[in-house]
Design goal:
Blueprint (H helix, E strand, L loop, with lengths): L2 E6 L4 E4 L15 E4 L7 E3 L3 H4 L3 H10 L12 H11 L6 E10 L10 E14 L2 E3 L9 H12 L3 E7 L11 H16 L8 E5 L9 H13 L7 H6 L8 E7 L2 E7 L5 H4 L4
Parallel strand pairs: 1-7, 8-9
Antiparallel strand pairs: 1-4, 2-3, 4-11, 5-6, 6-8, 10-11
Amino acid sequence: ASPSSIASAAGCAISPRRRGIPARHAPPWQKMFIQGLLTAALALSVSHPAASRASASRKASLIGSATMAANDSAFSSLDEYLGHLASEAALPEGFRIGNCGFEFEPSEAATGTRVKMRLTLIVADKPSSSFAAVFTKNAFCGSPVTVGKRRMRESPTLQALLVNNKVSNVCAAGDGVADSEALCEALATALELPDGAASVLPSSTGVIGWKLPVPEMRAAMPEAVASLQAGSALPAAQGIMTTDRYPKLRAASVCGGRIVGIAKGAGDSARCESLP
């Protein structure tokens, strides 16, 4: 099946706990329960005729309504859990993922502080005119959100997502929008994308108030491109982690195609114990 949609959102929750025992007291790998809805759609490859005729908004609706029931699988170790994710992580046909890591010295931190960052690429083999995204409604949003909303309004196609962890590009010194656009341009050039930087959607997550290390990110781009592979989405789930203890990934078959979703974030699972 050829890729017919690229979408990004957020979702999925992982709560390492034992039934009836508050999460703060549970040994980390005695029980792990993966729960929640698949609301983070990384990529959708559809071959069903009815789905291929659907509008972009309908395809976004299909993604949003694809759910998975709570999974009470228990894992005895981190390796077992990662093995389970790997078995679920096969990419839809027509998509590749790559990432790389590097160190940089934030100008906002103490002199000599070295921080590790990961650059993650999600790339479709061909440009797609069917895409959707979900953004914060906060009026004071980060620069990648500003660029992303512009892509939704103005770009005829999307072909790649560029994600970095460690730095959110929010409330940073300088021009955060220009930094995001410069990195999109660098990736479009490295990949020789026919529609240029306008077909790249940026995303940043991490520390608020730090400026993106644009020179270091540019320098790392060739390594990330060289690592592109069509086998597994797990490297992307791991690459976008910040304070997360574990990667989050789900997959489902929909309309004759395949959806793979990744998510990030850490929450107070102890508070969730009291929810109905």
